[in-house]
Amino acid sequence: MIRWNIFLSVLVAALFFAACQKDEIVTDPGAKLTFSSDTVSFDTVFTSIGTVTKLFTVRNPEKGKLNISRIHLAGGNSSNFRLNINGIPANETRDVSIPGGDSLYIFVEATIDPTQQNNPMVIRDSIIFQVNGNQQDVKLIAFGQDFHLKNGKRIKSEHWTNDKPYLIYNSLLVEPGETLTIDAGCRIHFHRGSSLLVMGTLVVNGTVDEPVYFQGDRLEKVYQNVPGQWGAWREFEGGGMYLYGGIHFAVGSKDNLINYAVIRNAHKGIQADSLGASSNPMLTISNTRIENMSSYCLNAHGSNIRAWNCIFANSGYYCLTLLYGGDYEFYHCTMANYFSLGVRNTPSLVLSNHASANNTTYSFDLTRANFYNCILYGGNTNEILVDKGGAGVFNYMFENCLVKADNAAAATMVNARELIFNKDPKFADVGKLDFSIDSLSPARNVARYDLSLLYPVDIRNNSRIEDGFPDLGAVEWVPKAKK
Fold this sequence. Notes:
The protein is mainly beta. The chain is built from 3 helices and 42 strands.
């Protein structure tokens, strides 16, 4: 009987001690909450004004009680999200205690009107938790418009129509042998870090009145000309890591066509790899603007590209790099680099037929890199690098072009005819990315006529041969009444 009483006394004391320990408030700054999820994502495509509700738990892993001094939405009452904390609707609450080993429940609602077309396509916020002077958060993500969502997809052949925007989230891969066809007027938006990898074929069928847009998913005006919003490393399930441009044509991709497109605000506009076995160009690109990139507009590695009526403008490093040889022709293109968000020490155009690694030079054949009736200009003293090295073929030609080159660069341009050096082309407004030319531009009336006959209208569908004296570059000068 005495032993039983002793046992009961010890048990009661232990339970009392445990209860006291559980009620004791932990003030250690190192004490942290844990969450059932670090991100609450609303991946429903919204088709009408509505509310979706999700749940996550907040747990106290300590033995003693934790006091959360404040829980609140970072976006406050203007947020698209609403909270319910342990059954009480509130976007902010204070002094919430969680006993040791216990949890509380938080319900999150996202209320979004997808008909508001100026909403960001991806709406973000976070829930902030303050404990013992420390701050933790749970991120909130919701999609804010009605659109086609492509989330980390590997696709076979698809045909995209202009019914509503497309959002690429976690990148998109077009499989080998498959074709993605995009109709005129389509708008393709990329979430940060997302890209389009083409291992098959891409066909973009824009028109002068309805170009196809490739850009980021931030639609607010402040992001209109912010470079570097999309395009980065991405690993696809079941296959390797790639460094894209915004649009990356991988080894083996072929017969790609881009007509009347606008590609803007990525890290790199287009990456094109591999000459391949086809006698046709890997990429034919026409009437297209690639502009406002943080690194490159077009970066080609031993590729095969034909381009006309294209504008490559404003990049943090290069507008065009044609590396490791290849086969290229550019007609009536404008390369203009007036990037203003950093110091640029690189030329706008680079031609090269070699690469170096581990003290070894590797040679490639630059079969052809020809520029006809083009403008190559920018804010630097020199905008061209002709970089011949190794034993590979190095064939290039600049004919009837206006170029900006210092004396050293000009001396290397031995394959050139009828060039105009270092005369300001008098672009209309480089700050607004308007690279049409002034009536007094030295680029007026000096293009080679027989080559202009190949492409008799400019990027704006204005005739460049009507007066018999075509202009250099992608945009023909016309009187204001015709613009």
